[in-house]
Amino acid sequence: MKATVKWVDGVMFVGESGSGHAVVMDGPPDHGGRNMGVRPMEMLLLGVGGCSSFDVVQILKKGKNDIVDCIAELTAERVDAVPAVFSKIHLHFIVKGRNLKESAVERAVKLSAEKYCSAAIMLGEAGVEITHDFEVIEV
């Protein structure tokens, strides 16, 4: 896997993934930015959410569950020191579908957390407390 990050100006950077997709990262004005993109630590948090959401959706689809939506709401805490690393991340999944069994969603979330989500597992091994919960909404 490869990526490039190019400085634009101030504290704005454009990251490009090896697959050719680009994203703008920028800081707040009090740090020299123009608030034109996500912060790098927000990108990391979004990566955890995307990785785990991918797993949950794929596991549920493979189980022939009639899933119509999956939203991961993430909250994170950072230490009050430099570097301001994450100390806690919580993922709350809202899974919508028809006749979804709570046990199936619980299993998908657990498998992502314990076996499949590389991003969350890597951060957890580095000492970040990562927790999960979910709710199922019938549509």
TrEMBL record:
NCBIfam families: PRK10738.1. It comes from the Bacteria. This is Putative redox protein, regulator of disulfide bond formation. It holds the Pfam family OsmC. InterPro entries: KH_dom-like_a/b, OsmC/Ohr_fam, OsmC/Ohrsf.
